[in-house]
Amino acid sequence: MVVVIFMKIGTKTLKEGFAKMQKGGVIMDVVTPKQALIAEKAGAVAVMALHAVPADIRARGGVARMADPAIIEKIMKTVTIPVMAKVRIGHFAEAQVLEELGVDMIDESEVLTPADEQFHIDKKKFKIPFVCGARNLGEALRRMNEGAAMIRTKGEPGTGDVAEAVKHVRQINREVEELVSFQKHRGMLRSKAEEFGVPFALVEETAKQGRLPVVNFAAGGIATPADAALMMQLGVDGIFVGSGIFKSSHPERYAKAIVEATRSYGRPEVVLKVSKGLGDAMHGIDAKSLQDSQKMQLRSH
Amino acid sequence: MRVGVIAFQGAVSEHMRMVDAVLGSGSALAVRRAEELDDVSAAIIPGGESTTIGRLMRNSGVFEKLKQLGDGGFPIWGTCAGMIMLAKEGDEQAKRTGELLGLMDMKVKRNTFGRQRESFEEELEVKGIGKSHCVFIRAPAAERVYGKCKAIAHLGKYVVAAEQENLLATAFHPELTNDLRLHRYFLEKAR
After folding, report:
1. Cystine design at B149: which of A89, A184, A249, B145 (Cβ 3.0–4.6 Å)?
2. What value of ipTM does the predicted structure carry?
3. Cβ neighbourhood burial of A173 (10 Å; 0-12, 13-18, 19+)
4. For an interface test with B, which of A1, A4, A6, A14 has the most B Cβ atoms less than 10 Å from its Cβ?
């Protein structure tokens, strides 16, 4: 029998600790148990279970919602690595359903159709950790202040165009550098906290650490091993790949190659080796050709 | 003295921070290639996803080298996924991790306590250390230890920390706390 003396669950340490265990890894979008197995075999650290990959959500249009829990459950039974799933922004009832189901992390995601124009989910109320998207430092810190244990720097999902992810990682890096330079000037840090709408302590901690205080992955538009190596060299802790794997001509090969390039991002000879003969990457869309109304990244603030 | 942290995936920087705090800045080395193990006096296999870490260790040759070194008395500490890697035997889930280093006489069970929702923090008595605040994240545990392997912390019927001469395994994550005692304890083995 387990003797319970002290036991605590659902703490900040446990939520952020879970995210730390994902560092250096690749998290792959999957829509079936079979795809989940391919991801696991290729060395994914976790899978994101959803009803359609972002490229298909984009093509299909209509309202995109949380996936059928029966499919998520099947995926949970199929693989031993953590299983994450997406809910609509602000849809805390979908999150409650996923917590009941027992997924390992919830992605409050702009890939789905937002349910609340004003409020994100109060993530501190949940025992399981959340990951949220951000395009800039203010957005990242607001999500953390709501209880997000992990951030993904947003690209433009379902495009296979890495440009937006690059832009936003650079944006966040630049803003963090600025905070670091303000470290001795509490007044300037204070006005930043006000501008971002977050507590001073969070801004101060970011300045002290010189990075986002939680694990930060890149997401959206990553389609090749070199894309993954690029994002890692820009300083993210790991990679989410959405449509890039299962919309390519050879998902197994792509999955393995992106894992390898994420681990060896600083060694071009390895990225070269794994990039050879992969077949076609996902066709993709030039993100600049999208109207603002077609951009998923603009769905949260 | 330099200490290697196997740096393929997982809580690498957290362990490096602890090693540097005990031995001084610059003492921790991120190890991604077998030959880098020649430059260190001990190694830590961090927590992360054991399937991923195991595969990358095997592909890089770090696996073979660590196995050899560990057999010859080189100090190795595995936390969480690292504990699984050190074990001689695993349950069905741990078997899917692939070949284990097989250095410690114990049988481990992957995700012993459940999924992330069931992850927990607990105060436990660790032999040789004392009362410790232990952070368990989708943690494994040993169902049994035998031979030369000795349990140093229990949780119910499970062994959550074990020691076998030069080798140390913990199911929990001291690197997610500010308690340096277990790192000090392990690094004594390398002196």
Report:
1. B145
2. 0.96
3. middle
4. A14
